[in-house]
Design goal:
Order of helices and strands: EHEHEHHEHEHHHHEEHEEHHEEH
Strand content: 15-25%
Largest sheet: 6 strands, antiparallel
Radius of gyration: 25 Å
Strand order of the largest sheet: 6-7-9-8-10-11
Distance between the termini: 66 Å
């Protein structure tokens, strides 16, 4: 690892961030890549492999709680086509990266962004907004498209040779692939942002967590990545059950349990493990429904055609349950996961309401200014 890096490069593992880092390396700068992770993106386990493949100094930074807070307060610049807050995300990552850069004595912060490559976050006006709101206008360099952007102090002062930076723009990849060949990169990452929030199937898992949990944390969103997801709405609250699909899911669910959660397992038959978030406080009838649903995903339990025994346990306590394996039928509020169309409608309605509130606030502010000016006259 470089002792004192000159440049910190936000590193996704994609081709553009690899090239941005190598381009700065080729100028003799000491470069450290910063790979941010959360339940929605990033893979800390891949860092060692990337270092070997690309000859880069890479470390990971967990931004999970910051990202959960961003979602709780809702993104200022809204969601993309699914549930992706791309502009707010980049602002958050750059703020955290600047703090890291300052802590290790770096002088430049760089990204692999390309002007015009992504419709939401890489338009010229949006690139400016991101730089401004993240507070990195004096240090942020975008090496792959720098020739289309004003120089930053590091270029003016000669730390970075602007003439050796690039002027790539648009959505094509031919220039990037040519540069990758020039650097001798044998493994080329496939295109794609790698963010789960851009995928509909994941959004329908995350949205209930965001809207039905009082204060959703990073661990809640991480749990939404596991197994089958079910929600039950009731006057006294929302109940959330995650049911394993295989032994790997079962192990991850067991590891994800927190104090107050209940783990539901069959006692004498093989089958899934289920995690009931806050299940230790669930009313017995709701816990029994959850146990019956869990048992319905165990073929040997279903084949018994009679009540089977399950155990719901938490800490050192718990209870034995004898239930028929079954799935609820015909009741809209019993153990379901919202469809994407339902989630999309809720997201759009919330965004429209937020926009309307901002417009109403702006008009009110204008009226106050006019009234104040009238009084002064």
């Amino acid at each position: 690892m470089t002792d004192t890096p000159d440049a910190i490069v936000l590193f996704s593992g994609g081709l553009d961030s690899i090239l941005a880092a190598r381009l700065l390396q080729s100028q003799g700068l000491a470069v450290r890549c910063l790979h941010c992770t959360s339940p929605f993106f990033g893979d800390a386990a891949a860092v060692a492999n990337w270092q070997e493949l690309y000859g880069l100094d890479i470390c990971s930074l967990d931004v999970s709680e910051d990202f959960a807070a961003l979602l709780r307060r809702r993104p200022v610049y809204g969601f993309g086509k699914v549930m992706n807050p791309c502009v707010d995300c980049k602002i958050l990552l750059l703020r955290r990266a600047r703090l890291y850069m300052q802590a290790v004595g770096g002088r430049v912060l760089a990204t692999g962004e390309v002007l015009g490559q992504r419709p939401m976050s890489q338009r010229r006006d949006t690139l400016h907004v991101i730089m401004r709101d993240a507070g990195v206008s004096d240090v942020l360099l975008r090496p792959l498209c720098a020739q289309h952007l004003p120089p930053i102090p590091a270029e003016v002062e000669g730390l970075v040779d602007r003439s050796r930076l690039l002027g790539i723009s648009g959505r094509g990849r031919s220039e990037q692939l040519a540069l990758a060949a020039q650097y001798g990169l044998k493994t080329i990452p496939t295109p794609g942002g790698g963010c789960r929030l851009t995928e509909r199937e994941n959004a329908r898992r995350y949205w209930p967590v965001l809207t039905r949990r009082a204060q959703p944390e990073a661990a809640d969103f991480a749990l939404a990545n596991l197994g089958r997801q079910f929600w039950r709405s009731a006057p006294q609250g929302e109940y959330w059950l995650s049911v394993g699909r295989n032994s790997a899911d079962n192990q991850r669910l067991a590891a994800a349990a927190r104090p107050g959660d209940a783990l539901i397992t069959l006692t004498n038959l093989p089958g899934p493990l289920a995690l009931a978030r806050d299940g230790a406080t669930w009313p017995p009838p709701v816990l029994e429904e959850a146990a019956a649903l869990t048992a319905s995903y165990a073929p040997k339990a279903v084949a018994v055609a009679a009540p089977v025994m399950l155990r719901a346990r938490w800490r050192d306590d718990g209870r034995e349950l004898a239930v028929m394996p079954r799935r609820p039928q015909g009741h809209a509020d019993l153990w379901r996961e919202p469809a994407w169309e339902e989630v999309r409608s809720e997201i759009r309605a919330e965004m429209r309401a937020a926009l309307q509130a901002r417009e109403t606030g702006a008009r009110s502010a204008q009226r106050c200014v006019k009234a104040d000016c009238g009084r002064r006259l």
